[in-house]
Input
Amino acid sequence: MKNIKSSEALFARAQESIPGGVNSPVRAFKSVGGTPLFIQKAKGAYLHDVDGNQYIDYIASWGPMILGHAYEPVVKAIQEYAAYSTSYGAPTELEVKMAELIKSMAPNVDLIRMVSSGTEACMSAIRVARGFTGRNKILKFEGCYHGHADSFLVKAGSGLATLNIQTVPGVTAGVANDTLTCAYNDLAAVKQLARTHKGEIAAIIVEPVAGNMGCILPEPGFLEGIRQLCDEDGIVFIFDEVMTGFRLAPGGAQEKLGINADLVTYGKVIGAGMPVGAFGGKREIMDVVAPLGKVYQAGTLSGNPIAMIAGYTLLTELQKNPGLYNELDAKTTYLKNGLEEVLSASGQPYIINHMGSMISVHFSDHAVTDFATAASANNARFSKYFHAMLDRGIYLPPSAFESWFLNNALTKEDLDKTIAATKESLASL
Ligand code: KE4
Output
């Protein structure tokens, strides 16, 4: 067992002033148990907690740190721009350059609006879809998470699944009634809901590769079928690419999967760890956004110069070096193969889901293709595995309902350590 006394003391203190001692529920280790580690600093692939312990990081701040922590060009850019003031509340050339850069990387984005979180991006995107279509309902998928805006807190994944929160107090019945849900990968159910609610659905919002139930891949025909349905019924197809954007490919899941969305939302990587989200898409739809149109959306810190220079610097690195994606994908495949070897030798049932640099391990004897199959895995075993790995210096997401995120600072030695730690951990369970 590692010495985590300072984390324990800080967690006790934090709970006196912060709900649950954390500023976001998934950090609280609620489903895996134990004391959340308080992080002192991080560099490359390594986190250092307040007790001086080092960990190989597979969370990457839930996605943003794709090239590793304290990535030099990003740090230097933030340091330089901080001296010019941290916010103006007025337009800057940097925001224009950021919008142009995103448009040069992401397909189907004519206009894009910057915001300060993935939640804001998704919340704004559905408002735009409702304003554009004049319809009220949205359809989301059980176990997908699009942030904590009221409309999304219906059968959502990530922290709600981790904490087993099915209905969220404070979300009114009126709001919840406008959110239709069905199982991920169930195209027949989508078509049935579209028939039942013909002319009522403004948008179908989906994680094109789901990362909030563990990592769950779209089955062949699932997204293509929704695309066709949206074309037929005048429904806005929204790709929530807060996780997949600029991670699966420079053009995100739209590029990787070859499917066009009408609107797309971003977060995480585009801010390089600073608070940034964005929503964008076809001009005919985005034209409704104020001050051009009447769909109001705003933010004091939207397009903040420090956040913009951080994101712009990281995206530029990714655009200039597309080989980074092949490197990252190869590292993830190497890790998957190594994990498969030790997991199959353990004799216990397991599933590994993986695309690009997103991966998840499920202790399950059946395919994990939606929330129900993710929830019916042996997640108690995952919790034990999580702690056994943490004790061996490997920091996995503290929930079976999360995707792991690899960063490109990980070395073959780190991956081998992770595989070896898995072998030892499984033997100890
Ligand atoms: P934020 O508001 O947390 O920036 O983004 C919300 C969001 C939207 N869409 C997707 C696909 C997401 O995964 C997220 C946020 N992801 C979680 C991790 N599963 C963030 C971690 C947290 O809640 O602390």
